[in-house]
From TrEMBL:
<dbReference type="GO" id="GO:0006078">
    <property type="term" value="P:(1-&gt;6)-beta-D-glucan biosynthetic process"/>
</dbReference>
<dbReference type="Pfam" id="PF01704">
    <property type="entry name" value="UDPGP"/>
</dbReference>
<feature type="binding site">
    <location>
        <position position="378"/>
    </location>
    <ligand>
        <name>UTP</name>
    </ligand>
</feature>
<keyword id="KW-0808">Transferase</keyword>
<feature type="binding site">
    <location>
        <position position="117"/>
    </location>
    <ligand>
        <name>UTP</name>
    </ligand>
</feature>
<dbReference type="InterPro" id="IPR016267">
    <property type="entry name" value="UDPGP_trans"/>
</dbReference>
<protein>
    <recommendedName>
        <fullName>UTP--glucose-1-phosphate uridylyltransferase</fullName>
        <ecNumber>2.7.7.9</ecNumber>
    </recommendedName>
</protein>
<feature type="binding site">
    <location>
        <position position="210"/>
    </location>
    <ligand>
        <name>substrate</name>
    </ligand>
</feature>
<keyword id="KW-0548">Nucleotidyltransferase</keyword>
<dbReference type="GO" id="GO:0005978">
    <property type="term" value="P:glycogen biosynthetic process"/>
</dbReference>
<dbReference type="GO" id="GO:0003983">
    <property type="term" value="F:UTP:glucose-1-phosphate uridylyltransferase activity"/>
</dbReference>
<dbReference type="GO" id="GO:0006011">
    <property type="term" value="P:UDP-alpha-D-glucose metabolic process"/>
</dbReference>
<comment type="similarity">
    <text>Belongs to the UDPGP type 1 family.</text>
</comment>
<dbReference type="InterPro" id="IPR002618">
    <property type="entry name" value="UDPGP_fam"/>
</dbReference>
<feature type="binding site">
    <location>
        <position position="240"/>
    </location>
    <ligand>
        <name>UTP</name>
    </ligand>
</feature>
<dbReference type="GO" id="GO:0005992">
    <property type="term" value="P:trehalose biosynthetic process"/>
</dbReference>
<feature type="binding site">
    <location>
        <position position="180"/>
    </location>
    <ligand>
        <name>UTP</name>
    </ligand>
</feature>
Amino acid sequence: MSKRHTKSQSTYAFDNTATNVAASQMRNALNNLSDTVTEDKQRFENEMDNFFSLFRRYLQEKASGTTLEWDKIRSPNQDEVVDYSKLEESSSTNLDKLAVLKLNGGLGTSMGCVGPKSVIEVRDGNTFLDLSVRQVEHLNRKYDVDVPLLLMNSFNTDADTAKIIRKYQGHRIRVKTFNQSRFPRIFKDSLLPVPENYNDSLECWYPPGHGDLFEALVQSGELDALLEQGKEILFVSNGDNLGATVDLKILDHMLQTNSQYLMELTPKTRADVKGGTLINYNGEVRLLEIAQVPKEHVEEFKSIKKFKYFNTNNLWINLKAIKQLVNNNAITVEIIPNQKTIGNSNVLQLETAVGAAIRHFKGAHGVVVPRSRFLPVKTCSDLLLVKSDLFYLEHGALKLDPTRDGFSNPLIKLGSHFKKVSGFQQRIPHMPKILELDHLTITGNVSIGKGVQLKGTVIIVCNDGDKIEIPNGSILENVVVTGNLTILEH
């Protein structure tokens, strides 16, 4: 940890004078950082220029108090949100114009795993990455096309991912990787960069969110390579969303409407009230995130009645439009200040979201898709869902059991004993059958045996220091289990 800035300086009151001073100090600090670079100096300097632009805009917005005017927010117009059911039937004729990109910058630390999150095993011995490869490879074989798979890594995941993708070399798929930027964290009090040297520890740096996609794609040369191959459309999704598969109807719709940007939306449930939503603001389509909402309107934002849909982060984007906008430096999106702690210091990392760029693309609109296209795995509760008999695997894609068609997925809440994948696997070595489950809550030291069936609403609460074991073959239906049990009648 650097000692140079650890003494608290006066926190800036964001007026024009303070903004200019802070910007000047940051520029000098970044120049000093650049002097310590020993390899690929041009790339580093480009990244620091981009970071400085972001930082300066952050200061200016703080000084001006730029916020959305709530009264100007409108629901999207009819032509700005289209229902998936209204799309025309599709063909495979446009597949050669497509490339697929997975956002692969995240680590599995929140689930207690080491390395990229994409290598966590999620189904039948397959990792997130395995499933993505199988899906795209199936398309290439079935339709005799060449759809490439791109992975946008961060400095946290790049080295490990490079080793992992070697196993796909014999497959009918081209897997390409590139890195998003590496920006310096800044001290919240002094607004100076945490690192003093290019080689300072990784905790001094951060990947600046997936809004960095556009710049990183161009700088890496991968965008030009795709255009040379005749690719026109990039399908972007989070690496942990198992519902984000290539959809020919959406691809054809995008090309038929000459839209430069499509965002997949899906109806909100009580679990999604914080998700970003599309709005019409001053006559243009924009993404509204909860971080932009004034405190007095947060509950209104969470309302399922007013804001019916949320952003899945499944995005379809025109490649030529990306290049033109980046070359014109025309993509400026809302900044998300993310506060972190390093040692005893409060630091900020300035991030952006790829969905917020929708307002810069011509003909941009949302498509309301079935819930099946949004199946993220953020926690072990999600992991239980996707590993269960609720789904079956078909060419790398998870398919919902037909008997659940028309029903929402069960709500599953697992307690802290199940937070890490290791604890989850230890306590639930065999997946229970949940086809008839509506709600499951488990807290405390609970273990589930083999061949267990869960139906209706099942709540299992184990007291601290106690243990509950659900024996093999148990059938639990609409029950609350509490106390300290090793044998359960069923």
